[in-house]
Amino acid sequence: MNAETFTFDGRKQNSFDPNVRNFYFLPDELKVTRGEGVYLYTDEGRRFLDCSAGTFNLSLGYSHPEIVSVIQEQAEKLIHVTSKFQVDPVNALVRGLAEVAPPGLTKVHLKSSSGSDANEGAVKIAQHLSGKSDVISLFRAHLGQTIAMTQAGAAFRRKPFAFQLPGMLHVPDPDCRRCFYKQERSTCGLLCVERINDFIDYASSGKVACLIMEPITGNGGNLVAPDGYLQALKKLCEERDIILIFDEVQTGFGRTGRMFAADHFGVAPHMLTFGKGLGGSGMPIAGILTQEHLSGVPGHHINSTFGGNILSSAVAAKTLEILRRPGFLENVREVGDHIMARLRAIAPKVKFIFDVRGVGLMIGIEIVDADGKPDAKLTNHLANLAQDRGLLMRTSLYGYGNVLKIRPALVITKAQADEMLDILEPLLLEVAGVRA
Ligand SMILES: Cc1ncc(COP(=O)(O)O)c(C=O)c1O
Fold first, then answer.
1. Ligand 1 lining (C-beta closer than 6 Å)
2. pLDDT tens digits for 413-431?
3. Which residues pair with 32 in a beta bridge?
4. CA 232 to ligand 1 centroid distance, Å
5. Fold topology of 66-323
6. Are 392 and 51 in contact (CB under 8 A)?
7. CATH no., domain 327-431
8. Distance between Cα 157 and ligand 1 center (Å)
9. Which run of H or E residues covers position 238?
10. CB 3.0-4.6 Å disulfide test: which of 63, 200, 210, 216 passes with 126?
11. pTM of whole model > 0.85?
């Protein structure tokens, strides 16, 4: 790779700073110094509206003042102690999580340091307690970066690595607009769920421990589970004695306008993993919620030095408190609906928009070429143009996908959403060759 010319995501690097030559991944040439709410500022004083909430994790936006205060106060008292001891911030967080957890999820496991790690932990719990091995995931899953979670992801992410795990079973996801089984949703009878039985019967080892899935795919293109899908999946899992795990690393903590996507869809899994948004303004925290009978795996099997970090836990407890304030989640639903309505109004005029879909503030715009095929190149081009005009946007499948993602901080106001759309809409129309 010519490090002097291109950044990690393929953007041209104009003013290369020789001091960043040692970065393994070359960062973008933008140098940011400050953030506030949905805005990020560069050292040259440019302001960007961040449509991706950092890495989809800044539920309260950049440097929320209440989070800053909690960090300052807690840092003076205690930053780390081994998780063997009780500490007030962790106790408060566990209490808060148990209060907001979907029905039946009574146990809180905090000994993870990232979403990937929490997913690994959930799979380990499922394997340990069931005595079974196999893991089912969906085609476009992104469940993390560890070796096992990479294996649970799409082929383009597994391909370069020699270390392959047996027992990972990939099944078609509910991509209703491009149905794997060429069905129509109104008449399909959720064939995609029924067919999972065939995968279990004929493609597994016969010992499936768990099925782990995102209720709305984060990295995989914002595919929203269709009505009845999760209910049918849970029924299948219970009939086949399989533990159902929702990965709510992206969908959790208000992103869908409910505390969890499980609440939005009205289905509680047997286990749920979380991370990202619980850190409020970016503190690292992750964990697992489980049903009572899924507790009991010895601590030494699933543990991390940074799990349940005190600073992060103090921030997470405060984040939960803020998310639970009257009106907070209503704002997510209202602003999300407003963004979807505006985008759907212009979509018929923009020939390359195939679909606008989402729930709450987890929205995707699917981009296609003239033949209706996924157009990742155009999608990245649109994201780059948006950045030039002051919007930070990310695309699906790490830049290999064709979905523009809109996932701003949950504190975004309707006026800020309009500011974003007043930049994005003309850009889409202009590229489509339509007069605004
Ligand atoms: C749905 C989902 N699961 C798991 C992960 C992995 O989380 P982390 O990056 O904290 O390991 C991600 C990260 O993007 C994610 O979007």
1. 114-116, 119, 142-145, 214, 218-219, 247, 249-250, 275, 286
2. 999 999 999 999 999 999 9
3. 42
4. 25
5. Aspartate Aminotransferase; domain 2 (3.40.640)
6. yes
7. 3.90.1150.10
8. 14
9. helix 229-239
10. 210
11. yes
